[in-house]
Specification:
CATH architecture: Beta Barrel
Order of helices and strands: HHEEEEHEHEEEHEEE
CATH superfamily: PK beta-barrel domain-like
CATH class: Mainly Beta
Helix content: 10-25%
CATH topology: M1 Pyruvate Kinase, Domain 3
Radius of gyration: 16 Å
Number of strands: 11
Number of helices: 5
Number of domains: 1
Oligomer: single chain
Shape: globular
Structural class: alpha+beta
Strand order of the largest sheet: 1-6-5-9-8-7-11
Strand content: 25-35%
Length: 206
Amino acid sequence: MRADEAESQILSETPSKPRPTMVEAYENPAGSIARHVPGGATGFRGVLLHIHVAPAASYEMEELAEAECVAGRGIVGDRYFEGTGTYSPKPDTREVTLIEQEALDALARNDPPLQGGGITLAPGDHRRNLTVRGVPLNHLVGRRFRVGEVILRGGRLNFPCKYLEELLGSPVYLPLYNRSGLNCGIERGGVIRPGDEIELLDDASA
């Protein structure tokens, strides 16, 4: 079954309710500008470490061995796919969210020293869908990149929020500022799994 046929089947089997409103990544103000500006990181080759979803706002994140990504919608089973996320009423680019393991490692080292000591976040505590290594997320706004068979479009940087601090009971807002991840749209759906390779694509790549 082709990826587009699988997506159509998933959507047809989803109970009828209003479809969440998403802002296409390249229509986001940041993504639309960055897309036409040369530069950014090139030549990297990263890896997907963890996949997490939550069925609704404030629910504990669940780790998946594989996930189905649907273009224009998100990850099947996630609160933003279902329209039940905390910020679902506010349309934005949030089909898939990513964070760098390197940023979490720095947080654990208290680097830079912005609080009394290091803060260790377990996979999923940060509430992003994908934890990756070797991927310069801050440079992928307005860029296309591949995660396994799935193609993502970087829409905007993710910013930490006080809501995350409340859920975790840890002062993560300031140390995660400017390294809280990337919000993406899905250009081509499919199945992703931990261990999948991540690489930059140019606009002509399929």
